[in-house]
Amino acid sequence: MHTNHSITLQSALTEAIARLGSTSGTPQLDAEILLCTVLGKDRSFLRTWPERELDIAHYAAFDTLINRRRQGQPIAYLTGSREFWSREFIVTPDVLIPRPETELLIEHCLELIPFNQSVNIVDLGTGSGIIAVTLAAERPQANLVAVDISAAALQVAKMNAARHGVDRIRFYQSNWLKQIPPGLFDVIISNPPYIAADDPHLQQGDLRFEPQTALTSGADGLKDIRIIAKSASNRLNKGGFIVFEHGYDQGLAAQELLKSLNFSYVQTINDLAGQARVTSGQYLPPD
Question: Within 10 Å of residue 151's Cβ, how many Cβ atoms?
């Protein structure tokens, strides 16, 4: 760390990029984002004013963030936010970091729900609230219930609902559908944990810092998906949908599960990388 009192934005960045070089795949981007976080400015500011001096307090805060990033801590936890579906969401270490793949879950769900229809949707394992808040914002007639077993995650979700001015969400601390008041839904949507407990990826990258309960689900990664799917038929209106995200190699298992539970029109949708990512089915029990 510099003892020199005059350090410019550019020299602070150059030094930080060098320090991140060995641990981050995107050292320049990381350094710029973290400096912007400290300054409360956007990245164009850094390009416009490279020679501006960085005061001691800002420099110290930047230095701390760079050290935490060098330990591998995720950028989203260091900045406290991540963009999803063109909105900024508050993110803390109590919740999973929003992933671009989850936008596919939203996209598919929106295709199933007409814009002007009043529908009841439950988002299971809401985490930061990205699914519930996005659906409430995109479907003004929808009423949402957002559920998480973690009280800390629900606090983050409530902050995000308030941040985006969405007030049609009721929040419940519940183990999946167990503690939600009685009533039927038109859509059950979830991005549940779906990684097998012994998956080596859990020791890599951001996953090391994320809440493990939001990531892992039994020996094969399908434990929670089974629980949700089996309990869904008791909580769906006839003609209602279940839609959930899963691992790239779980598409067939997800389809077989829904078919065995009498769901119709079961389909799996691939993400941009061509990997199976979202499966849905319609509840049409025989009369």
Answer: 10
Which residues are CB-contacts of 136 (< 8 A; sequence separation ≥ 6)?
142, 144, 161, 166, 168, 169
Q: Are 3 and 56 in contact (CB under 8 A)?
A: no
Bridge-based pairing state of the strands 236-245 and 143-148: unpaired
| Averaged pLDDT, 193-206 | 76
- Helix (H), strand (E) at residue 187: strand 185-190
**Does pLDDT of 2 surpass 60?**
no
Angle at 168 between CA 163 and CA 171, to 5 degrees: 80
Residue 112 · residue 135 · CB < 8 Å: no
How far is the first Cα of the chain from the last one, in angstroms, to the nearest whole number? 72
Give the integer Cα–Cα distance in Å for 133 and 162. Answer: 9
> Following DSSP, what letter does each residue of 127-139 receive, concatenated?
TTSHHHHHHHHH-
Q: 272 exposed, middle or buried (CB, 10 Å; 0-12, 13-18, 19+)?
A: exposed
Give burial (CB, 10 Å; 0-12/13-18/19+) of 213.
Answer: middle
CB 177 within 8 A of CB 148: no
Do 98 and 89 contact (CB within 8 A), yes or no?
A: yes
Q: What is the DSSP string of 106-171?
A: HHHHHHHS-TT---EEEEES-TTSHHHHHHHHH-TT-EEEEEES-HHHHHHHHHHHHHTT---EEE
Which of left, alpha, beta for 40 (phi over 0: left; psi -120 to 50: alpha)?
left
**Cα–Cα distance, 32 to 64 (Å, whole number):** 14
pLDDT reading at 3 higher than 60 = no
Using 50, 70 and 90 to split pLDDT, how confident is the model at 199? confident
